[in-house]
Amino acid sequence: MANGYGISNWQDAKTIYAKLHKLTSMPIYSISDDELDRVLKHFDENCKQSKEITTEAKQYIPGGVQHNLAFNYPFPICITKAEGAYLWDKDGNKYTDFLQAGGPTILGSNYEPVRKKAIELIETCGPVTGLFHEAELLLAKEINKNMPNVEMFRMLGSGTESVMAAIRVARNATKAKRVIKVGGAYHGWSDQMVYGLKIPGSRFFLESHGIPRSCYGTTDEVRPNDLNMLESMLKINKFRGGTACVIVEPVGPESGTRPVDFDYNAGVRKLCDKYGCLFIMDEVVTGFRVGPGGAQGYFNVVPDLTIFGKIVAGGYPSAGGVGGKKEFVSGMAAGVGTMMKRAYVGGTLAANPLSAYAGYCAIQEIVKTNACEKAGLAGDRLVAGLQGLVDKYALPFVVYNQGSIVHLECSGAMSYDFSSLNIAKSAIPMLKTKPEMLRRKVAMEEMGAAYMAHGIVTLAGSRLYTSLADTDEVIDEALNKFDDVFKTVTVCKRNLDK
Ligand SMILES: Cc1ncc(COP(=O)(O)O)c(C=O)c1O
User: Quick one: which of 320, 329, 325, 318 has its CA closest to 354?
Assistant: First the structure.
């Protein structure tokens, strides 16, 4: 590992796909009936205050929780304290935190040096004024220092908005219409990007309710890690409006849940050049997590536009932005009354002093503490330990990581791929396999609940982010908890479809 990057070795994508394929062809493994009873009893007895408050929340908040990936089986847990590698709930239970707020807190939760700076700023100018603050320049320069290809940076309110903005810039710059994304990838929840979510080839079948077809009529989906299919799509698009941009998650869809070959991003770059479209690298997760230079630094590939989110505001709200080459990013210039044909973007609270300053301070701390490398080593230690447990109990689970992004696939619920099928055919297997997918989802919920009952918070039971706060002791303590869960896992005989 060099230059502060957190990925010690790039794991072969084909080997991981082969393991995932094997996993999905096996019976489902989950915790035993006895353990499930114990887990449910644990929540009833030890999480009473969480249950009470989240039951009341259901009357006022749709579904009772406001995060899609919030733990909610058997009921959501109410967190009251966060520090370093740990979280505490309202009932006083302590958890090892591998959710990391979904990725932004690579320095660990509520990191004191950044918190102190944020409080100083709030005490002097408050969180927002609507006018320029020096922190905006500090952040843009800090990003440029670490990612030299990000010559300019426009801060926005979220990753979702930033993807919308980048696509607008690409269409404005190329005068072409179509956007190619990779099946299964997540680029936020804008109308045009809620297409092919989670399962490659699923197109509009899964989550596009409430979105008119015309909104995603110019979005195309290609199979993960498949440059041939990408080139075919680019060729076809020449005859139907042209391709404005290709957008990718650089470590693979869903933060590497579907991994890519090391050379994949370089291949995308070449194809974008060949077909005259922009290459948008979505670094919402990888920006300042894979390394201070982002995935683009790690892969040594120069995108035209880079999407930021999460860590860019240091774990504080309003995390988003678009950066990249001057010729493109300047196409989002702000100000009243400009006559240029710009891509219009906005946001009352975007680039507020608090978010900009917290982001600036956090990136400085990440560099100073070598956080990406340390978090990556923690990820390696966690994966080695988990693999040891998988072997010890002869489980079919698949474990791998891209540094501090750790994947623990227990059911392979995310491993389906319908990209090869045409629209008419793809609907049929989707519908046929729906009960299977549901069954796997429930198995994931059960495993997630078992981890939680043993004091480990994960992202949907299958992803774990590590941070600077994850010392060897933290990881080893967590592995003991995983051991307690894994020793109860067996072939699942419950009828999970009910
Ligand atoms: C790769 C990627 N892009 C975009 C987004 C959307 O960002 P936000 O949640 O800030 O809208 C996410 C969120 O998880 C993401 O992982």
Answer: 318
- Atom 7 in ligand 1: which residue has the minimum CA distance? 159
Cα(307) to centroid(ligand 1), Å: 9
Q: Are 6 and 290 in contact (CB under 8 A)?
A: yes
Instruction: For residue 179, give the nearest of 138, 213, 218, 235 by alpha carbon.
Output: 218
Average pLDDT over residues 149-158: 98
86: β partners? 83, 96
CA of residue 312 to ligand 1 center, whole Å: 12
Is 400 within 8 Å of 390 (Cβ atoms)? Answer: no
User: The tokens of 368 are what?
Assistant: 């100073």
For a pocket test of ligand 1, which of 99, 155, 186 has the largest count of ligand atoms closer than 8 A to its C-beta?
A: 186
Among 285, 402, 463, 465, the mutation site with the greatest number of ligand 1 atoms within 8 A of its Cβ is 285
The answer to whether the beta carbons of residues 39 and 75 sit under 8 Å apart is no
The full set of domains in the chain, from first to last, is: 13-109+370-491 (3.90.1150.10), 112-368 (3.40.640.10)
Strand stretches in 263-339, DSSP E: 278-282, 305-309, 320-324
Helix (H) or strand (E) holding 7: none
CA–centroid distance, 25 to ligand 1, in Å, is 31
Cross-strand partners of 87: 82, 95
CA 289 to ligand 1 centroid distance, Å:
14
Residue 189: predicted pLDDT: 96
Q: What is the pLDDT of residues 416-456, one digit of tens each?
A: 777 765 544 555 555 556 667 777 777 788 999 999 999 99
Strand 278-282, strand 243-248: pairing = parallel
All residues at 6 or more sequence positions from 473 whose CB lies less than 8 Å from its CB, including other chains: none
How far apart (Å, rounded) are the C-alpha atoms in residues 11 and 34? 37
DSSP lists the bridge partners of residue 210 as: none
Q: What phi and psi values does residue 134 have, to the nearest 5 degrees? A: -55, -30
